[in-house]
Amino acid sequence: MAADGDTLRALLRAANALLQQRRYHAALAVIKGFRNGAVYGAKIRAPHALVMTFLFKSGSLREKLKSIAQATYAHSRNLAYFVFTYKGLMAVQSRLQGKKIPFHSFFAACIGGWLVFGENNPINSQIIMYLLSRILFGLARLAVEKGYIPQPKQDPFPLLAALMWGTALWLFEYHRETLQPSLQSSMTYLYEDSDVWHDLSDFLIYNKRTDNK
Question: Which terminus of the chain is less hemmed in, N or C, by CB atoms within 10 Å?
Answer without folding.
Answer: N
